[in-house]
Write a structure and sequence with these properties.
By secondary structure, the chain is α/β, with parallel strands linked by helices. Helix content is about 25%, strand content about 20%. The chain has a ten-stranded mixed beta sheet with strand order 1-8-2-3-7-4-6-5-9-10, sandwiched between helices.
């Protein structure tokens, strides 16, 4: 234990024990911090509304900025949506794992409360084996960057802990995250061909090689 009451584990030397402690924390409705292919993320069980509320509170972030969902494998997207347009399927087949987030209609039967999403869910498969190992154990996680709202995203576990403290139960230290451009966000809830909402690591020309009809402002 550290002085905040949260726990920090090394993914390099304590991987299996660390992932198991993090898994139990998620099952108990707590928040965990872990490295991704961009920055450190803070996650909570995607199907646990109270846990997601704790995540938003830890970041001092409102429901008007809902958390996206990270999954371990592309096949798991079918657990979150009944509607996967052909263009979306082509993109995820090409760019997952990777820096692509797709917004899709959420399954109505799901107990999914990520904030004010208006019935949608933003989904990504991170290109980071440690993150995906965790996701394989926990199932889908609501995840946001590990920082206080308005502050720079943490690229180390220590920086995340300095900001989030004991609002997070478990910190998984995987060394310095690479940072870099955020994921490209493509919305498929209005147009089946997709519209780029946020340019990011994957450029529009790369997207159009796979989905020629995709729209961008």
């Amino acid at each position: 234990m550290n002085e905040t009451g949260s726990q920090m584990f090394s993914l390099v030397t304590e991987k299996e024990a660390a992932l198991e402690v993090a898994r139990r924390a998620v099952l108990q409705g707590q928040c965990v911090v872990f490295p991704t292919d961009t920055v450190y993320g803070v996650g909570a069980g995607a199907f646990d509304p109270e846990a997601v509320a704790r995540l938003l509170a830890a970041k001092r972030r409102g429901r008007d900025m809902p958390a996206p969902v990270l999954i371990a494998e592309a096949s798991m997207v079918r657990a979150l949506t009944d509607e996967l347009p052909e263009a979306a399927k082509a993109l995820v087949d090409r760019f997952w794992p990777g820096a692509l987030t797709v917004i899709l209609p959420a399954q109505r039967a799901l107990r999914l409360d990520l904030g004010d999403t208006e019935g949608t869910v933003a989904v990504r498969v991170p290109d980071h084996e440690g993150a995906r190992d965790l996701l394989r154990r926990t199932g889908p996680l609501a995840v946001s960057s590990a920082n206080l709202s308005g502050e720079p995203a943490a690229t180390t576990a220590e920086a995340a802990r300095d900001m989030l403290g004991d609002a997070v139960a478990v910190y998984l230290d995987g060394g310095e995250a690479p940072g870099g451009a955020p994921s490209t966000i493509v919305d498929f809830t209005v147009q089946e061909v997709g519209r780029v909402l946020r340019p990011g690591a994957i450029g529009i020309e790369e997207l159009r090689e796979v989905a020629p009809g995709i729209q961008a402002d």
